[in-house]
Amino acid sequence: MGLSAEMTAQPFVVGEGRYEVDAPIGYGAMGTVYRARDVSNGDAIALKVLDPRVVGSKVEKRFLREGEAMRRLKHPNIVRVFEVGQDGGYVWMAMELMDRGNAHELVKKRGALPIPWVLHIADSVLAGLQQVHLAGWVHRDLKPANVLVDSQGGVKLADFGILREDHSDLTMPGSSLGTLAYMSPEQTEDATRVTVRSDLYSLGATLFALSTGKAPRGLAWLEDDDDQAGAYSIVPDPLRPILRKACAFNPSRRYADATEMRAAIRRLLILQQRG
């Protein structure tokens, strides 16, 4: 689902004329991301606009909550949201523009990424996740498409549309939210049961995709050593133990938190630099 063809073809303005919208640069299930210009300073930005067909639904509530959450999470590895608004029939958020797209697109163009790139992405995402988890939230949709990159080598976490927040009533028990290939076993059963370790599973699956160029499929269910050896054989040797730990079926066997996993990534970064 995306915005109608008429809406994507025509330029428009939001924010009482502050943001001039140009061409679409990305499409999601519930809306479209445009390249836009902030006329107050001339800066290029990204403008995420909700599909009008879901305005007024629970999806709109999630969208607005995502924007407000990201506005509060000010961190170098989290995409900045400048403003969230509703006007002229549009529900939108104005965001920092990342000029190299996302990690999924990067892998599609280049194939499996070199280990130093993968480690840099992992370290950056974990730095952002530390802040997310410290705020009491779980992202719940960590995947390559939600890891944005820029031409300066910056890496930032984006798309908090289905994050779990303490005391939230937007997810019903027993429901499943997320992207299946990157979801932990507990999240596939009940999205309200996720913890910070669920995000670490998703990051492990993301790193699998980035380091191999292949989609991760059922990594958590590979408890047998022979099955695991086969599935992980395409992962570069230095990364293999980290991914196996991050993607363990039992959450208690994964890294305890983003800080612990980041320490493991940083140890590997140091070894790679020395080597």
CATH topological fold name of the largest domain: Transferase(Phosphotransferase), domain 1
Q: What is the helix fraction of residues, given as a range?
A: 25-40%
Shape: globular
Structural class by secondary-structure content: alpha+beta
Mean of all residue-level pLDDT scores: 86
Query: How would you sum up the major sheet?
Result: 6 strands, antiparallel
- Provide the number of structural domains: 2
Residue windows where pLDDT falls under 50 for at least 5 positions? 1-7, 164-176
CATH superfamily of the largest domain: Transferase(Phosphotransferase) domain 1
Distance between the termini: 47 Å
Would you kindly provide a written description of the structure presented here, covering whatever features stand out?
This protein is of the alpha+beta class and 275 residues long. The chain folds into two domains: 5-95, 2-Layer Sandwich (Phosphorylase Kinase, domain 1); 103-274, Transferase(Phosphotransferase), domain 1 (Orthogonal Bundle). It contains nine helices and ten strands. The radius of gyration is 19 Å and the shape is globular. 41% of the residues are buried. Residues 1-7 and 164-176 have low confidence and may be disordered.
